[in-house]
Write a structure and sequence with these properties.
mainly alpha, two-stranded antiparallel ribbon, 13 helices
Length: about 290
Amino acid sequence: MSDGVQGNTRAIEGSVVTDFADRMTYGGYLDLETLLSAQRPLSSPEHHDELLFIVQHQTTELWLKLVLHELSAACRLLREDQLAPALKCIARVKHIQRTLTEQWSVLATLTPAEYAQFRGVLGNASGFQSAQYRAVEFTLGNKHAGMLRVFESDPTAHALVTAALEAPSLYDEFLRLLARSGYPIPHAVLERDVTKAWTFTSELVPIFADIYADPGAHWAAYETCEELVDLEDNFQLWRFRHLKTVERIIGFKTGTGGSSGVPFLQRALELTFFPELFAVRTEIGR
């Protein structure tokens, strides 16, 4: 047995700081008093599973905050032609996406009978109203100005989503970087109205086909294309797990926010961020 463990108890090393009268603490740095007091179930009497529901969505919002932080940095770095650090930001987003997708398995432990006992306290509150989620979608190119109406009663949220709507998307910034690097990106693409949702542009497919035909000669562009494909794949997996978790818990009931529920989420799977990067796969090897 180690000298530091006796009676199944580990000795506290003498160098460990234990006096925090005038030192920064773990809880103080993270503001845990605020964070851990933000879970306020509304059911009365309080239902055991409402805490799960709140924590699930609050942690998702924290991860979305980091996703926006990284995507914003990636867009800025692409504008500055700093591709390598931009790809590092995108790589981090991909890891966060995997965590967000796996989180649905925790919420899926909530049974329909359990959720039904406190669902009423949500009123019309819905994930559809997540400003950060909408800003992520906008930053990736799924713009929809009509969504701004949802946030009109919250100036801070409205400003966040508006800024994402009006800014070039990650894909816009990548295509502009390609143009500056000598790739023949059409002028109409470079001058497009960035407040509109990205739509399939067939003229880009031959450009990507040339990149994929000789990855060694176009490695930076080729690698970025594959990173963007990973982002979209991960996002679609998240959407699918969301759909199946909702179906598992409430079936085909309407959503608390007024949507049709599962059918509405199903249609989201038809949305795409980088359609040309998938279309080019049909052309490779022909």
